[in-house]
């Protein structure tokens, strides 16, 4: 199975070279999305962890695909399939695959022209600290990431131990166990926590039905196994692209199903606001493909 994994790494390198030429069509975006899904699935089946350089190339591919110069291509592609939304799912699967191979308490950060990604692996029984994203003090930050006003805060209390009886590895949102001989027991369980700030995805995603406006960057959080918090304590602040105040609170209960609330600050004083923006939440959620 090592040969299969090495073959997928070579495909990643070749695909990045092709995308860097910037001479492709809308159908190529969907085809590239399918290639990335097959690459991720093959890596998982082969239990092959790609080299860090190939991991970076994978993220660079996604970033190139999400360049705004591809906007018209994505509009054409979305007549056939919700490719950008599928790309989000593939990216999250890849993040968890890479995160499962990290050492406990190890963190990973990458910033491209269109993505900022962090990955952490923490013991379920002892998440070390609150999650704050993005971390702007890191070296090598792109200007857009360093100046972004978008914020994610998850207190470590959110990461309560999952309920007994839900510890099956058959579902990607359930418990995964890892063994490091000499340091970890077979029953040790870990959270893989991934956060992604998309610079351009809000513009590229196909429009929801009924129509709604996505007036910010898109920030997603993915945690496996799924925590069971006693109360919703996750705070997400997204800076608006237009001249309104927008906040998006996202909590992932099932794979790729999100709750997104958008509102204007002044509108909160009106009694119909909650009902109105629940409808917007459903509209935004309708852009996501079913599992």
From TrEMBL:
Q: Name one Pfam family in it.
A: GAIN
What GO terms describe the biological role, i.e. biological process, of this protein? negative regulation of angiogenesis
Q: Which residues form the AGRL2-4 GAIN subdomain A domain?
A: 2-98
Its recorded name reads AGRL2-4 GAIN subdomain A domain-containing protein
Q: Which organism is it from?
A: Poecilia mexicana
InterPro entries assigned: AGRL2-4_GAIN_subdom_A, GAIN_dom_sf, GPCR_2_brain_angio_inhib
Entry GO terms, CC: membrane
């Amino acid at each position: 199975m090592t040969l299969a994994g090495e073959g997928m790494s070579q495909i990643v390198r070749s695909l990045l070279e092709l995308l860097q030429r910037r001479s492709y069509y809308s159908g190529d975006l969907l085809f590239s999305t399918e290639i990335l899904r097959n690459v991720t699935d093959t890596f998982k089946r082969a239990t092959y962890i790609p080299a860090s350089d190939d991991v970076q190339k994978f993220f660079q591919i996604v970033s190139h695909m999400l360049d705004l110069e591809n906007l018209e291509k994505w509009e054409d592609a979305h007549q056939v399939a919700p490719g950008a939304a599928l790309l989000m799912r593939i990216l999250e699967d890849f993040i968890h695959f890479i995160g499962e191979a990290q050492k406990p308490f190890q963190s990973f950060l990458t910033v491209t022209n269109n993505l900022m990604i962090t990955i952490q692996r923490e013991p379920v029984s002892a998440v070390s600290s609150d999650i704050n994203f993005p971390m702007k003090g890191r070296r090598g930050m792109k200007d857009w990431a360093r100046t972004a006003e978008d914020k994610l805060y998850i207190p470590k209390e959110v990461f309560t131990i999952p309920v007994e009886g839900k510890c099956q590895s058959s579902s990607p949102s359930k418990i995964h166990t890892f063994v490091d001989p000499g340091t970890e027991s077979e029953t040790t369980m870990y959270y893989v926590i991934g956060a992604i700030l998309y610079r351009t995805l809000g513009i590229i995603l196909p429009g929801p039905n009924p129509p709604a406006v996505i007036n910010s960057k898109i920030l997603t959080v993915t945690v496996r196994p799924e925590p069971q918090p006693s109360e919703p304590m996750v705070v997400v602040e997204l800076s608006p692209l237009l001249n309104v105040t927008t906040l998006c609170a996202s909590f992932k209960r099932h794979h790729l199903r999100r709750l997104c609330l958008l509102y204007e600050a002044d509108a909160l004083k009106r009694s119909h606001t909650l009902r109105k923006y629940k409808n917007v939440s459903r509209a935004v959620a309708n852009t996501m493909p079913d599992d």
